[in-house]
Design goal:
5-stranded antiparallel beta sheet; 3-stranded antiparallel beta sheet; globular; mainly beta; about 140 residues; 1 helix
Length: about 140
Amino acid sequence: MSEDRLPTDAPRPTSATQEFWAATSDGTLLLQRCDACGTVIWYPKGFCPACSSFATSWFAASGLGTVYSFTVVRKAAGAWQKATPYVVAYVELAEGPRVLTNVVGCDPGSVEVGMPVQVVFDDTGEGTALYRFRPLP
């Protein structure tokens, strides 16, 4: 298992998330924007949670963000036990939304709130990749 690889199942795309997950296999983090009110939407869905419009568009996110909150998991069961310690974090994307993810590619003890991070992708081998974040150099 590489340092970025965590024992997570491949996602099961729905009609609302298919485009998002397909883009991850190309190394692109897609977000939706409401065409009516401009709200950037996370998690992908078929409507705007702010104004209920069904008019949304996809756009490529910058992949940049900052750690908003995090915890270091030091004890786990099953396959996750071998992955400890690992970081579970909310990353606030440059575009606004906060995403639940992992911070990888660094010592878990070095992660800090406000740390700048960039998206990386872990290929599932099933036509999708899982988005993770690693500190910016």
